[in-house]
Amino acid sequence: MRKRKILVQTVNGVSKSFKKQRSLEDSLKQFEEVFKGDDSFRVRHFASVSQDKTIKFCLLYLDGMVDPDILDTSIINPIIRTDFSDDSIPGADVIISQVITNHCAKKSRDSQELMLAIVRGDSVLLLDNSIDAIIVSSQGWKSRTPSEPEGEKLIRGPREGFVEPILDNLSLIRRRLSTPDLKYKEMVIGTRTKTKVGLVYIAGIANEQILNELIERIKKVEMDGIVLAGMLAEFIQDAPYSPFETIGFTERPDVAVADLLEGRIIVLVDGTSEALTLPYLFEKFFQSGDDYSLNYVFSTFSRLLRILSFWLTILAPALYVALMTYHQEMIPTSLFMSILAAREGVPFPTIVETIGLLLVFEILREAGIRMNISLANALSILGALVLGTAAVEARIVSATVIIVVALTGLTGLMTQKIKAPIVVIRAFLTLLAGFMGLYGILYGIIIVTLHMCSIRSFGVPYMMEYTSLNPEELKDTAMRAPIWFLKKRPKFIAKNRIRQTDRSRQR
Amino acid sequence: MKKRYRVALLILVNIFSAFLLTSCWNYREPDNLTLVRGLAIDPTEEGKFFLSVETADMHQAGPEGKVKSTVIETEGETMFDAVRNAVLVNVPRLYWSHATVVFISQKLAEEGVLKITDFLIRDAETRLDVHPIIYKGEEAKEIFDVKPISAELVSEEVMDLLHAQKSTSKTLHVQMFEFLERLANEGISPVMPVITTKENKGQKTLKLSGLALFKKDKLVGYLDEEDTKFYCFAIDEVDGGLLVVDVETEGKQGKITLEILNSGTRFKAKYKENKVTIEMKISVRASMNDVQIPGFPAEEKDFDIIMQMASQQLKYDIENVIKKVQVMNTDVFGFGSLVKRQLPKVWKEIGKDWDSIFKELEVEVSADVEIAHTGLLKKSIKRGD
Known about the structure:
Chain A is of the alpha+beta class. Chain A is built from 16 helices and twelve strands. In chain A, the strands form three sheets. Chain A has a five-stranded antiparallel β-sheet, sandwiched between helices. In chain A, strands 6-7-9-10-8 form a five-stranded antiparallel β-sheet, with helices on both faces. Chain A has a two-stranded antiparallel ribbon with strand order 11-12.
C-alpha cells in the first residue's frame, strides 16, 4: 500500500481536556486564544442573580452560524430567570436537565469537542468553577430549499433534489423510506474541515462485506479537507486510474432510495448536494429514473438508444477515419463520391481534420458548460456560424466531418454520465483508426472491453449484468422488463435478493 | 511496481506487434485516388492493350456534388502495365474497388479474354463483382462517347440498364465471379451480356443486345434479345419478362401478351442405350396483360386454348435456341455439368467427348404456361355496334 503522510493536526495550544475545576475567566481565556483573529467569535456574559449569590455564565458562539432565537429563548432566558438560591453551585447536569429548554444539550470537558462544536454552529455554555461545559445545539443558517436538480431532469417523477446540509438530505431519503432498518452511520473526515460523511443503507438488504470494506476505506482517508463528494469518491473507488467511474452519484433522493432498495449503499457528504451510490456497475450509465415511470416498451427503446449512442459517440469519428483512409472499398460508391465531392479542396489529411474538429467541439462544449447564460448565445452563434458554415465554405474542413463530429457530439450529450471514459476511448480509437484502420478500431475495442471486464466496484464485477447469461439478471440491463418481472435484486450487491412476491401481479 | 511495468511492457509489445501484423496499413488519403467506375479494353495493332478508364471526377463537383465523367486513355504491353502507365497521364492513382463494368471489345474477346481477366482477378483492389460486358462495335472506347440519358457516367448507366433487365429477361446479369465459375467448370461455357450503341433521336445511346457466347475464353457467337429470353428459360434464370403469343382459333387471330409472374425449370439427364438425353420441364405462371383480339377470350375454354398455344410456342422457341447454340457448339446451357451432377458415372466415360455429344444432344423440352389472372379486365372490351 501507499504510505500516507499523516496530517493530523490539533487545535493550536490547547491541552486535551480540562484537568481541574477553574474559574470562568480561565476557561474563557483558553477559547479566546484559539479564536483570536476571528471577529465573528462572540462571548456573551450573563448571570443568574438570586438573593444570596450571583452565578456567572458565559455563552460562546460564532456569529452567523447560530440562530439567535434559540440562544435567547432556550439558554439565556431560562438561566437568567432561574433562581439558583437553593443549590450551592449548580452542576452541568442540573442545568441541562432543569434549566436549558433546548432539545439537544450535552456536557463535555473535551476542549477539542467544544471547539468543534463552536465551529459547527453550536454554542458552548461555560460555567463558573466547573470542570464541564455544555454544548447546546443552536445551528441556524440559511440553506436553500430542495429544488429539481438541473443535471438530472426527469419527465415524470418528484421535483425534489438533494441540498447541501447532510441531515436535510438524510431526511429527504428517510421520508421516502419509513423503516427503522434504514441506518445512518456518520463518520468525520478531513483533519481541518471535519466534514461529516454519512453512510446510508438498509440493514438486512445491504451486503455487510461491502459496508465494512467501505468503512475501512473511508477510515483510511487522511486529508486536510474533503470539500466535495467527488473528492471522497476518488479516495475510495476501485480502479482509481481508470477513466471509468466505479462510484455513481445522484442528486435525486428518489434515485437514491431506489438504489438503497437494490441493496446499494449511499454516501452523503456534508456540503455537497449529491449522494454517492455504490457499488456502481456499468449498466447504471444507461439507466434513468424515467425508465421506471414510463412504459416498459418505451423505456427499453430509450435504453437501446442510449447504448447505440454510446457506440456511435465512441466509434463515429474512428469509423469515418478508418473507412476514408484505409477501406474506401467499404463505402457505398455513391456515398463515397459525395464525400469526395465535399472533401474537394480541403487541405488537411482526414485524420488531422477529424481530430482537430473533435477538439474544437470539446472546446466549445467546455466553454459553454460553465458559461453565463447571456454569453451562451454568443457561443452558439460562434460555434454554429464559424464552424458550421464558414469553415465549410472556406474549405478548411469538409461538411462530412462536421456531420460526423456533430453526430458524435449529439450522441455524446445523450450519454453525459459516461463523459470521461467516452472522451478517452474516442480519442484512443480515432488515433488507432488513423494508424491501422478498422483493424486498429477492433484492437482498441478489445483493449477497452478487457479493461472494463477487469474492473470491479467494491468486489462486484463492473460488467456483471452485461456479461451474464442468466435471464434473471438481464431483465434490467439493455431492456427494462415490466416492474413485476424484477423479482430479484442484483447478485453480490444485495444480501437478501427477493424483492417481491409472485403475488404482486396476479389476476 | 514491478508487476505494473511488466503489464505495461506487455501492452506495448502487443501494440507494436499489432502494427506489424496488419495486412492493410497503407494510409491513403481519398483525395489522392481516382475513382474508377468503368473500363473499356481494346487491342492495338501492335498487340498491346489500349485502356479507356472512365473515372468519376469530383474535382469540379462543388457543393452540389455533381459528378463528371472523365476518361483516361492509356496503353501498355499487359493489362497491369497499361494501368500503371495511367500515372503518366494522371497523377492520383487509379482506385479500382468501385469499378463496376468492364467493356471488352469484340475483337479482343474473339482472341480470348483470359489475358484481361487475370489482372482483374489477381489485383487486390479490383473486385470479382464487376460486370464484364462485350462491346459489339468497332472499338470499345467508343462507348464512352455516348451521352448517357439518366446517369452522369456511362458505367453507371450500363449498370442501371443491366439491373433493370429483370423485367424483360432479355439479357443475363453476369458478374466476373460467375463468368469465372463457368469458365473453370467442366460441361458449361460462359456468357457475357452484349452492349452496342444506337441512334436515339439523333444522339448515340446505349443498348443492351442479348448475349455473347464463349467457348473456353473465346467469343464464338451471339444470341439476340429474343433468343436470350428463351435461353434464360433454358437455364432457369427468368424472373420476369413477356411472352407474346400468336393466337389463331376459330377464325379469330391476333397477339396476346402474357407477363411472366414466375417461372421454374426442372432438368433431368437420362442415359439410355448409350445415349444421353436431357429432359427440361418449364412451368410458367403468367398474367394476361395485353389482348389484341376483340371479344376473345370469351369463355373458360378460351383460356385453355391460349395456355396451350403459349406452351407450344414457348417449347418451340426454346428448342430453336438450343439448336442455334448447338450449331455454335458451345454448351452455355450447362447440360454437361448437369450430366456430371446427375450421372457422374456416365460423365466419367463420355466427359471428354462432350463437345461432339453436345452437338447432337437431344433435349426434350416441355413447357406449361398457366394464366393466373387477367389484369383489371375480366373480358375483353366489346365493340358496340
